[in-house]
């Protein structure tokens, strides 16, 4: 019932439900005992107002129950609600009701008492827990517009003194207690700094803080702090933007504390830090501001697919500005990853023996993040659009910054300690990743541009100073990789070795790359490495095969490329795409992909492999013919299947793609028409991707002449008793000496039963040595009958068929022949399996 309609209610109605309402009023009093005193005073004023109204209406009825508006008052305040006897009876069991502020002070005293007893026992874990609780209670007090209690100031001052005493015996503490002690020390220093005025007042006059001052519930007026009270905080505007008169470091601290919180405008924070950098008066202030600004730049793009190009360029400018300050003050300040953390950023670090102040930070991490953002943008941008080319032009910026980071790392790390310098190893790894896949001329241009932009530094690299000599590029990767070879971390050594091999193979130094590959033994352990190293291994292996093809080593190229080329996951193995659908790829899978300009052309890879297979397999098909051992001696089953599929086609039109050109060339070579095969292969435009395409075409023509001669002899030897060398020389346009050498090699390997007649200058074939078709079929039938008979005998004797030898996976494995490369990259076969394979074959 509303209080405005209580006047029309009878006394009987009030008395009937008085006990229930008064009991509920007492429960509400206990639940609301933590309300503020201002609200209680308001209630008392209302009570007095209601009491005056009762006196006006009925001044003589003091003994009756509360009526009218007094119906809603508490029992203890209702006029005439109880007699003197009842109040005297209830006085003994009456509960003491405390206000919210009194309860808050009791909780603060309890936490302080626990801290005092725990710090005496050096139980800093409990001290840390109680100190955090104490700070939370202080926040509650500040939310109620209360001043900082004196007992809190006294507690943090005494706790600071105890920390100074315990600091001397810190080594006696165990690991967990020592960690808690360090945390307490940092938080107490912050609390003392925030309440520096009150702490100084306590140290000057401790007796004034023994008695708790009356707690004021009335907030002070805006802009007028209470006399003698300082909260130790700087007033800041939106997103940490400093207000007029705020100091540099307090504004910087407020920005640092707001990082990572929700509803914080990162752009406003960046503007604030940019303003602080302009206001910086000392190098130390500029360094600290840049160390905070650069991470904020990267935080703005954490939720995006890649960092905005404008922000990326601003971050690159900030990093170079930081390097400029460090280089100008290299005898005073250095940013190191192993420096001690600063408890107070306002106080500069203590100089070391050389007079250098070491600041905790990592400029190399900034450069790595900048490089990662550059790579992310290249992964997302369409590689066939002009934006990709425009973005790729910025690679020179990051490359120059990496060299600058290397020079700074050489400044802080002596040459004698380079083997243990993880910082310089990370920088050199990034530098190698930008040059190992490029030709020498392009590397020379990048180096020249980078060192010209860094000429103002006046510092030379002790690893390899820049030079305009032609030999500089050849020794550049050797010098950089030699630093990584000295590192204790095996990941650096493996990555340097594979990049080194790739560089040699890309620049047509096949034998040097092959020897380094075999010496490293990476093929036996690469399956235990992470995915990025396995991708680099596969790329180096493919580039080695392409290099062998360019040098005319067809057999080596075929062996090296076979495993990856015949795999259905060659895109994924080379880090150039994924075989799964896009929605099934994880973030890690997408980040593992390489930028488009670093890709190896898969069509070129297929062309090289199929051409190598053609030059190897077609003569072998002609030699074996319909022999029963033909399928057993195949080296490229994929090429055989492609050729059989091409032969099964009812209508064979003109070639349309690279595979069709190679299949038509294979059929022409089988018929002994090497000229048609040469025209078909040389008409493939993919060869233009090689630096010296004319040389490659002439190489293919020469190989087709030689293998065409062998194919012709194998195919038509049964129709000749004697074949003139001069005629063969004319057909295949080869010198007679070359023809004689090829025929002699075939006779020596017992590929043909013939002899050279120097008198008639011809090759004479021996008849009756080779088996006829009928004899081959008879032998095949006899072998199968023998196997069937042996199987029946074992089944009759109750024995189960047992597999002989060792069972192992040979999918895609390369032969471990001398001079060839074992391909343990994809199937994880180690030396033990290789040894078992050799034993089984023997």
From TrEMBL:
Pfam families reported for this sequence: eIF-3c_N, PCI
GO annotations of cellular component type: cytoplasmic stress granule; eukaryotic 43S preinitiation complex; eukaryotic 48S preinitiation complex; eukaryotic translation initiation factor 3 complex, eIF3e; eukaryotic translation initiation factor 3 complex, eIF3m; multi-eIF complex; proteasome regulatory particle, lid subcomplex
Sorted alphabetically, which Gene3D superfamilies does this protein's record hold? Winged helix-like DNA-binding domain superfamily/Winged helix DNA-binding domain (1.10.10.10)
**UniProt keyword annotations, A-Z:** Cytoplasm, Initiation factor, Protein biosynthesis
Identify the stretch annotated as signal peptide in this record.
Answer: none
Where the record annotates domain PCI, the positions are 596-770
Q: Where is the segment annotated Disordered?
A: 1-68, 209-229, 821-842
Comp. bias intervals (Acidic residues) = 16-63
What GO molecular function terms would the record report?
A: RNA binding; translation initiation factor activity; translation initiation factor binding
A single Gene Ontology biological process assigned to it is: formation of cytoplasmic translation initiation complex
Taxonomy, superkingdom? Eukaryota
The record, for InterPro entries, names:
EIF3C, EIF3C_N_dom, PCI_dom, WH-like_DNA-bd_sf, WH_DNA-bd_sf
4Fe-4S: is it a keyword of this entry?
no
Q: What does this protein do?
A: Component of the eukaryotic translation initiation factor 3 (eIF-3) complex, which is involved in protein synthesis of a specialized repertoire of mRNAs and, together with other initiation factors, stimulates binding of mRNA and methionyl-tRNAi to the 40S ribosome. The eIF-3 complex specifically targets and initiates translation of a subset of mRNAs involved in cell proliferation.
The cross-references to PANTHER family, in alphabetical order and at most eight, read: EUKARYOTIC TRANSLATION INITATION FACTOR 3, SUBUNIT 8 EIF3S8 -RELATED, EUKARYOTIC TRANSLATION INITIATION FACTOR 3 SUBUNIT C-RELATED
- HAMAP family given in the database record: eIF3c
Q: Provide the assembly information.
A: Component of the eukaryotic translation initiation factor 3 (eIF-3) complex.
Protein family (similarity comment): Belongs to the eIF-3 subunit C family.
Q: Output this protein's name.
A: Eukaryotic translation initiation factor 3 subunit C
Classification of source organism = Eukaryota, Fungi, Dikarya, Ascomycota, Saccharomycotina
Gene name in the database record: NIP1
């Amino acid at each position: 019932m509303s209080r405005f309609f209580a006047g029309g209610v009878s006394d009987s109605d009030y008395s009937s439900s008085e006990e229930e309402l008064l009991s509920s009023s007492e429960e509400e009093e206990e639940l609301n005992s933590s309300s503020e005193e201002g609200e209680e005073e308001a209630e008392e004023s209302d009570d007095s107002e209601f009491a005056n109204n009762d006196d006006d209406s009925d001044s003589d009825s003091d003994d009756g129950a509360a009526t009218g508006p007094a119906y809603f008052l508490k029992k203890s305040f209702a006029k005439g609600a109880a007699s003197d006897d009842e109040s005297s009876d209830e006085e003994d069991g009456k509960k003491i009701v405390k206000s919210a502020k009194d309860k808050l002070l009791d909780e603060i005293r309890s936490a302080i008492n626990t801290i005092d007893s725990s710090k005496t026992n050096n139980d800093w874990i409990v001290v840390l827990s109680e100190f955090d609780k104490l700070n939370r209670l202080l926040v509650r007090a500040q939310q109620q517009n209360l001043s900082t209690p004196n007992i809190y100031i006294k507690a943090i001052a005494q706790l600071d003194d105890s920390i100074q005493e315990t600091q001397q015996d810190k080594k006696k503490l165990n690991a967990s207690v020592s960690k808690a002690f360090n945390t307490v020390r940092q938080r107490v220093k912050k609390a003392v700094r925030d309440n520096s005025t009150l702490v100084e007042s306590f140290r000057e006059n401790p007796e004034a803080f023994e008695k708790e001052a009356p707690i004021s519930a009335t907030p002070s007026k805006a802009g007028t702090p209470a006399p003698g009270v300082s909260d130790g905080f700087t007033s800041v505007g939106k997103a940490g933007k400093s207000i007029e008169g705020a100091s540099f470091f307090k504004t910087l601290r407020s920005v640092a504390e707001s990082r990572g919180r929700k509803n914080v405008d990162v752009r406003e924070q960046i503007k604030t830090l940019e303003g602080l950098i302009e206001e910086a008066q000392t190098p130390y202030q500029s360094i600290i501001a840049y160390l905070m600004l650069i991470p904020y730049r990267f935080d703005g793009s954490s939720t995006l697919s890649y960092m905005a190009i404008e922000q990326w360029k601003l971050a690159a400018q900030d990093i170079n500005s930081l390097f400029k300050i460090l280089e100008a003050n290299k005898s005073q300040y250095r940013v190191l990853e192993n420096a001690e953390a600063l408890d107070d950023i306002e106080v500069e670090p203590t100089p070391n023996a050389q007079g250098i102040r070491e600041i905790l930070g990592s400029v190399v991490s900034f450069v790595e993040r900048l490089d990662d953002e550059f790579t992310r943008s290249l992964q997302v941008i369409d590689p066939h659009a002009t934006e990709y080319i425009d973005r790729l032009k910025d690679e020179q910026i990051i490359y120059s910054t990496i060299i600058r980071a290397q020079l700074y790392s050489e400044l802080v790390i002596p040459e004698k300690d380079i083997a243990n310098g993880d910082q310089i190893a990370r920088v050199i790894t990034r530098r190698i990743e930008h040059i190992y896949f490029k030709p020498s001329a392009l590397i020379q241009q990048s180096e020249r541009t980078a060192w010209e932009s860094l000429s103002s530094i006046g510092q030379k690299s002790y690893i390899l100073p820049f030079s305009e000599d032609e030999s500089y590029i050849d020794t550049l990767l050797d010098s950089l990789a030699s630093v990584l070879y000295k590192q204790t971390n095996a990941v650096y050594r493996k990555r340097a070795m594979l990049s080194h091999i790739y560089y040699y193979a890309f620049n047509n130094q096949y034998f040097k790359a092959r020897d380094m590959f075999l010496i490293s033994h990476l093929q036996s352990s690469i399956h235990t490495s992470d995915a990025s190293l396995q991708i680099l291994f596969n790329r180096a292996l493919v580039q080695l095969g392409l290099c062998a093809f360019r040098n005319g080593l067809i057999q080596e190229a075929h062996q090296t490329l076979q495993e990856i080329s015949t795999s259905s996951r060659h895109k994924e193995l080379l880090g150039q795409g994924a075989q799964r659908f896009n929605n099934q790829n994880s973030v890690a899978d997408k980040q593992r992909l390489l930028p488009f300009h670093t890709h190896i052309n898969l069509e070129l890879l297929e062309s090289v492999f199929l051409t190598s297979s053609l030059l190897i397999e077609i003569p072998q098909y002609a030699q074996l013919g319909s022999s029963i051992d033909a399928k057993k001696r195949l080296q490229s089953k994929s090429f055989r299947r492609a050729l059989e599929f091409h032969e099964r086609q009812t209508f064979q039109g003109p070639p349309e793609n690279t595979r069709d050109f190679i299949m038509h060339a294979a059929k022409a070579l089988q018929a002994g028409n090497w000229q048609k095969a040469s025209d078909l292969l040389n008409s493939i435009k993919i060869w233009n991707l090689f630096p010296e395409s004319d040389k490659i075409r002439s190489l293919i023509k020469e190989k087709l002449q030689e293998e065409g001669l062998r194919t012709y002899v194998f195919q038509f030897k049964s129709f000749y008793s004697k074949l003139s060398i001069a005629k063969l020389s004319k057909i295949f346009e080869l010198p007679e000496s070359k023809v004689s050498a090829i025929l002699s090699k075939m006779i020596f390997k017992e590929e043909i039963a013939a002899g050279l007649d120097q008198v008639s200058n011809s090759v004479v074939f021996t008849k009756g040595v080779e088996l006829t078709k009928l004899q081959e079929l008879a032998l095949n039938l006899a072998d199968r009958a023998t196997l069937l008979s042996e199987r029946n005998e074992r089944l009759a004797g109750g024995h189960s068929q047992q597999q002989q030898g060792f069972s192992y996976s040979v999918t895609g494995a390369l032969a471990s022949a001398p001079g060839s490369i074992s391909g343990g990259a994809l199937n994880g076969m180690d030396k033990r399996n290789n040894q078992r394979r050799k034993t089984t074959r023997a």
